[in-house]
């Protein structure tokens, strides 16, 4: 069953659902749920605060990882060397700078699409170098790294959504807009 979608015009005796653009006689909770789950609109609060929460949740893993590299460079270097990497100091400090810089970009919503793109591209070699689960001889290590591999693919999906939809209204990129 589909309901027709009309343009966001208000007529006498009819109201427009906030953030949804569909005129209805009375706005009941059921109508709000129907419009939300049918894809006909998004509640303003979800757009406003949900994008901020998503950026916070996605960015925190990169920020924490970057800070951990700065706090324990020897441990990170040993891990990189164990995976056969060369130029370890260069890649260690580059990774820390990318994770902290682009992570802050994403968190604050400043050039968030660019920050998301940088992190997306960063995850490709990281995932293939450190979480190539098929190269680990121990089945337990294979399982753990397969989960990390899938985890990174999931992060890439979230970053792709930020690149497509932008940072949302609560961001430095969109400050000053009457949202």
Helix/strand layout:
Blueprint: E1 15-16, E2 23-24, H1 29-37, H2 44-71, H3 73-82, H4 88-108, H5 112-130, H6 139-165
Antiparallel strand pairs: 1-2
Helix pairs in contact: 2-4, 4-5, 5-6
Detailed description of the structure:
The protein has 179 residues and is mostly helical. It has 2 domains: 1-42, no CATH class; 44-165, no CATH class. The protein contains 6 helices and 2 strands; from the N terminus they run E-E-H-H-H-H-H-H. It has a two-stranded antiparallel sheet with strand order 1-2. Helix 2 (44-71) packs antiparallel against helix 4 (88-108) and helix 4 (88-108) runs antiparallel to helix 5 (112-130). The protein is elongated. The model is unreliable at 1-11 (pLDDT under 50).
Provide a quick synopsis of the model.
The chain has 179 residues and is an all-alpha fold. The protein has helices at residues 29-37, 44-71, 73-82, 88-108, 112-130, 139-165; strands at residues 15-16, 23-24.
Q: Biggest sheet, open or closed, and with what strands and sense?
A: 2 strands, antiparallel
**Global morphology:** elongated
**Strands of the largest sheet, in order across it?**
1-2
Arithmetic mean pLDDT:
83
SS content category: mainly alpha
Poorly predicted ranges: 1-11
Query: Mind telling me the C-alpha Rg?
Result: 22 Å
Work out the count of structural domains. Answer: 2
Beta-strand residue fraction: under 5%
Number of strands: 2
Feature tags:
disordered N terminus; elongated; 6 helices; 179 residues; mainly alpha
